[in-house]
Design brief:
ABC-type vitamin B12 transporter activity; ligase activity; single chain; 2% strand; transmembrane; threonine-phosphate decarboxylase activity; Cobalamin_biosynth_CobD/CbiB
Length: 305
């Protein structure tokens, strides 16, 4: 089973490098988002309904994925079943995780910012949920770097961690675990706001699920940046953001770069430092990319073992 998991991971990573994000029309995460959209409405008992949604929708997604990976073994036998199952699981790894998009989007924003700040202000909305109209150039640069670090945890390390843990049981469980985490994260991104009481359960579930991936991401960033001591320094600011988890990768990257990463009026990570210069911001994205590669390699080792 370790061979199949490693093959699935390799296929998923290769597809991400070659293809990037699939079209929304054909993206299972977008399909899942449409299902979540139907649950995003007023409920008579919003917290109870939200708890049922947080339980049922990710579980349903995981069940579909597990069944699709297990199906080839029911239709064929021998090495063909192994290869077919690994191929299907690899497609799900591709769907559930992303390295190319998280790095290229941040890099594109930084490149555009140098020539056309107004266009960059529009582009950065793909990365952040904050109002960008009043942000300065330095704030926009900080937002791009922060988001790259945070999305490393959400978009790559979390599903791959789940895949590696599930691979200790079976390949269908590994793919299902990655899909379940991706579904939980999608629920939180769509429903997890204070204005939506039916999203409270989704937000709390995401907080629990992301505890380990956020801290693993911080470790990977420190290693990729060649500054393991950044983890100790980051601990002083990591709890400043409202999220109990997102502060860890962001604060670690701020420590590695020795810059201030801030969301005006909300938090300032490494507050005594200067905002990132263009060169340090670009270095930050490169560090995120190296950390992503390390995360993939670590997942491969865990899946193989």
């Amino acid at each position: 089973m370790s061979v199949a998991a490693a093959l699935a991971l390799a296929l998923g990573v290769a597809l991400d490098a070659l293809v990037g994000e699939p079209s929304t029309r054909f993206h299972p995460v977008a399909w899942f988002g449409r299902a979540v959209g139907r649950a995003d409405r007023p409920w008579r008992h919003p917290r109870l309904a939200g708890a049922l949604v947080a339980f049922a929708l990710p579980l349903a997604a995981a069940a579909v994925v597990a069944a699709s990976v297990a199906l080839p073994s029911l239709l064929v036998a021998g090495p063909a079943a192994l290869a077919a199952g690994a191929a299907v699981a690899g497609l799900w790894v591709f769907v559930a995780s992303s390295r190319r998009a998280l790095v290229s989007t941040a890099a594109d924003v930084l490149a555009t910012l140098a020539d056309d700040p107004d266009a960059a202000r529009d582009d950065v909305r793909a990365l952040v949920g904050r109002d960008t109209d009043s942000l300065s150039v330095a704030d926009l640069r900080s937002a791009a770097v922060e988001s790259a670090a945070e999305n490393l945890a959400d978009g790559l390390v979390a599903p791959l961690t789940a895949f590696a843990l599930g691979a200790q049981v079976s390949l269908p469980v590994a793919a299902a675990a990655a899909a379940w985490v991706k579904a939980v994260n999608t629920l939180d991104s769509m429903l997890g706001y204070p204005s939506k009481p039916h999203g409270t359960a989704s937000a709390r579930l995401d907080d629990a699920v992301m505890w380990l991936p956020a801290r693993v991401s911080a470790f990977l960033l420190a290693v990729a940046g060649g500054d393991i001591g950044a983890l100790h320094r980051a601990a002083a600011w990591a709890r400043d953001p409202p999220s109990p988890n997102s502060g860890w990768p962001m604060a670690t990257l701020a420590a590695v770069l020795d810059v201030r990463l801030a969301k005006p009026g909300v938090y300032a990570l490494h507050p005594t430092a200067d905002p990132p210069t263009p060169e340090r911001a670009r270095r930050g994205v490169r560090i995120v990319d190296r950390a992503a590669v390390l995360g993939v390699a670590l997942t491969g080792v865990c899946a193989w073992v």
